[in-house]
Design brief:
132 residues; alpha+beta; five-stranded mixed beta sheet; two-stranded antiparallel sheet; globular
Length: 132
């Protein structure tokens, strides 16, 4: 299986500019976009704040990278509704980790995917990175 760890780029600015209610609505809309990118049996969950995890059963790292890239591209082209102004473009950073390639227990897989996601947060944003 593989795990994706997603974080919305510059989400604090959405809350600061449009308010927390709008930010919460955007996260609900984002979860719908995520769900439409996945297969039946894949699981998506809000991890906290503006972070989401995706569990991809029976998927290796190569396929998980393709899924993550499809998610990243779909989100970057979607315009999220905002009642206080024009629709917003949103981007995400996604980290990918797979069992047993990157770790052998649930917490370690999440940590590896989270660390891979932070590679993008610390550099170009709107990107996908695999655990090392």
């Amino acid at each position: 299986f593989s795990v994706l760890f997603l974080d919305v780029d510059h989400f604090k600015s959405v809350n600061d500019r449009h308010g927390h209610v709008t930010g919460s609505r955007l996260l609900v809309e984002l979860s719908g976009v995520l769900s439409r990118c996945l297969r039946e049996g894949d699981l998506v969950a809000r991890y906290g704040g503006d972070e989401f995890t995706v569990l991809l059963p029976d998927v290796d790292t190569d396929v998980a990278m393709k899924v993550a890239e499809r998610i990243r591209e779909t989100i970057s082209h979607h315009r999220f509704g905002v009642p206080t102004g024009p629709a917003l473009p949103i981007t995400v950073c996604i980290g990918v980790a797979s069992f047993p390639r990157h770790a052998r227990d649930a917490q370690a897989i999440l940590d590896m995917a989270d660390h891979a996601m932070y590679i993008g947060k610390g550099s170009i944003r709107n990107s996908v990175h695999v655990a090392t």
